[in-house]
């Protein structure tokens, strides 16, 4: 049986997380590398194909809205895990707790006294022009003062071997089900090495999620529902999976009714009171009486029931204002303003096209920058300057000039690479990291994360809708 040969493994021009700049194996990967070298290609390929079949059998699929073929895909799980040292992870935890604490205070302030605007830490025009700012939420006081109960900030590692926050996701961050199922599959794939490396467990996430949700309601036996847009939503597998894991009801907006400002679920035995809704429906669609009148996904009267304190919505409506990519540029200042601390995790340098000096720089250097639409996600609305054509650059220049508020720019970051199984050899592929944060009576971060990987050689776009895959993330104890 042929041994694994890493002699062709390319580490030039990029930080590699398995090999250092001298081509030496990093200590966190030593045991794993020794194990897979003994396997050979036949065994590795067999394990990879078994993993693909396991994902299909578990229903770990998603839809791509832009794909007119109407087919479901698996989020390809590469069987070579990403391994993170425990000391490095502990720093990430501290940084994420600091960041989500400040962001929660920011959202509360934006819909409250607006001190951060009055003190000119953040321009008020930036907030009031944000598509995700909801004036209907002014004056709201969610249970226990928590707005962003579930979040998933995206992190990248650059050439300096440091993690940076790329963006924040405070509305309906997805992917946690893949993190949990990836772990179950990899534990069966590499049981011996998993145990020897003392990988920190992630299987308490569902328990922590349930505890967090229950902590928000005064009811001793609260009924929890996961609200989904329906079976055709790209993340429906996750909605159903999480409802099953935490023992919650899986409902659509049409399954709920509001009476006397209380929310009820329609059942075969009559109406049943619902106290907590973990919603996976965007703000604009949760209540057609308040937001989008054409929405068929929400429940009429739901927002008013929430305002009256008769139901808990997780996450709270209005948190999307902190997801705005233009607001992202001010988060270091926000942390300093509310906590009096320097950020533990730094942002990627960001140019705000709505500011004249920044806009001038972006237009003059667009070929070297990554341009992002502030209200887009999933890898859409982007221009990767160094990989774009002159025509594409001119088109984005016109868009920026027409609506500068809608765009930011960042330098091209050489995302770190990790070993990935690719046909007949192991090659480095670019990755990012999405840890999941639960915020209730305290803040809990699962010691693992969804690593998203750009499966196409040379690509830096890791989004599943753009052909990306995933890896299990092993945090060593």
From TrEMBL:
Residue ranges of the TM segments: none
InterPro entries reported for this sequence: ATP-dep_Glu-Cys_Ligase-2, CP_ATPgrasp_2, UCP005522
Circularly permuted ATP-grasp type domain mapped to chain residues: 81-454
Pfam families: CP_ATPgrasp_2
Gene3D superfamilies: 3.30.1490.270, 3.40.50.11290
Coiled coil region boundaries: none
Protein name: Uncharacterized conserved protein, circularly permuted ATPgrasp superfamily
Record organism: Marivirga sericea
Lineage: Bacteria, Pseudomonadati, Bacteroidota, Cytophagia, Cytophagales
